[in-house]
């Protein structure tokens, strides 16, 4: 069933969202963004390459609380790994044996999930692998990954959004044999620049705000201030004539629509879990929470350009689309990164025609199609939220599919394994979104390919490997993958909406590989 105009307008509560919420972004308004004043050099997260012992790379990661200074004269309590906010960039190579040594010095529990990576379920860092306050967690695994950008973040049941908002996230760069020979820009921090893109809201005392209204819960939490690698109003001093930007949308719920202020196109070379087979030129690049993309930017000496985010054009058609975008805060234009070129060195890098060879699973190979219907509370759920401030689905729910945040009529339950997938199976997962919101659907452990959107073949930039796919309102998306590798009947992997407030409210399920 399509989300029709009549249904939206019929739901008084949904229409009421417009009045309740909407973030006020930006320049020209007196907010934290303005108060921040001049631009600052983009912070580059430190690289952590691990220490090799007995053929295993050991990574020490200490999850800790700290104090960050984003605003003049204000302190912001944050969480980081080996630092106050965010964490180091782990560098891995396909085939590496790694041992993670994660300690939690926070005064509360957490987890650390390796988003996008193919690892045994017990090493996944999802909501079952809780690291108690003061305790250590030491998973080890072999890296079996195509070259791409991955990330790690908290995945504590019901608290993921709050902990990621405080800063518990970081990047993972994986290289492989194929990527090593391509000659792409790959000098970290020089011509290979990671960008963790997040929006935040500040309270008057300098601390980060988090969910404070029904609107935040329904539309997802959005900030009015952009941080890139934890830098407010960043600029990058570009050193070479060709630069690779690795973008992570590490925001809780905001969808970005990237483009350049001088109208140039973006050359996209990678998606979530791999390089693309060949580079794709795009005018705009839309990136949902959890998704990654890599682009190549060629510049001339003494040039300054800006990476921007523009209003989301693709999110729903017509008047309803416009109303939804305003409602969820994706109709704003703002700067992401100023790129300043001085005297540039020659690139010394190249963009080959063919970047990667990828698995090409065909629908007729699929043993099975599973359907996942995303559910959100409409009228009843909103009334419940207003009364109790809790989401429906935790505790009692008022009945009916649309009364809970969930998938296939069920809200996440750690004790219930929803799907059992035979190891080695090729499967199609069909995600159906009848809700008024767009949802980025993420599957743990695997990388998939997008088969179609409402029956239409995906655009060229969606031909790479992915682990998170944005499903627009009213849309049905089919993805295909080969599952398996590590079986474990008792420890499940997650699949969920990567709008962290939706995930925390129950739009998540579990599958075991058997
Ligand atoms: Cu990015 Cu289940 O996670
Ligand atoms: Cu994940
Ligand atoms: Cu969602």
Give a short synopsis of this structure.
The protein is mostly beta strands. It has three domains: 8-29 and 185-345, Sandwich (Immunoglobulin-like), CATH 2.60.40.420; 47-175, Sandwich (Immunoglobulin-like), CATH 2.60.40; 363-513, Immunoglobulin-like (Sandwich). The protein is 12% helix and 38% strand.
Please tell me about this protein's structure.
- This protein has 514 residues and is mainly beta.
- The radius of gyration is 22 Å and the shape is globular.
- The chain folds into 3 domains: 183 residues, Immunoglobulin-like (Sandwich), CATH 2.60.40; 129 residues, Cupredoxins -  blue copper proteins (Immunoglobulin-like); 151 residues, Immunoglobulin-like (Sandwich), CATH 2.60.40.
- It is built from 9 helices and 34 strands.
- Strand 4 and strand 5 form a beta hairpin.
- The chain binds CU-O-CU linkage (C2O) and copper (II) ion (2 copies).
- The site of one copper (II) ion (CU) has 5 residues, from loops.
